[in-house]
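MOLECULE: protein
FOLLOWS: sequence and fold
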Amino acid sequence: MKTILIMRHGEAIPMQANDAARNLTEKGHAEAEKMGLWLQKHFTVDALLVSPYSRALQTAQEVEKNNVFKFSETCSDIIPEGKPQIAADYLETLIATHPQCNTWLVVAHMPIVSYIVDQLSPGNMPIFNTAAIAVIQYDETSQRSEYVNINAPANI
């Protein structure tokens, strides 16, 4: 059994012409750091898959301050307008090819984070507050997932 953690980036500056370049706000950095500490307390995160957008990369950097990853990759399939089926399939492929990694963290954006949860665990499509993390248990043998819960900075 593997654990998949799907995380939305922390609060970012308002929309601008270059969406990919939007940075985290001060609050967004604090949210990401708080969730990084929460992750450290509850999981041993082995692997990171992160969107190439600035706010997702900054969120991952805050999380990484308190966690050490055996595997890390930037993935253009998990951008806001990405295709959730492709993203979920790619994640499952990575899990299969890196058996040493038991807990995977995906840092991305709305709406794709909700759609990825639904792809992995049909019928579950949570709405993510900034820096929220959905927990999914994944059986790599049967390729079946169970949505467990979602945790947000305000609730921990």
Observations:
- The first strand starts at residue 2 and ends at 8.
- Helices lie at 26-42, 54-64, 84-97, 112-120.
- The chain has a mean pLDDT of 96.
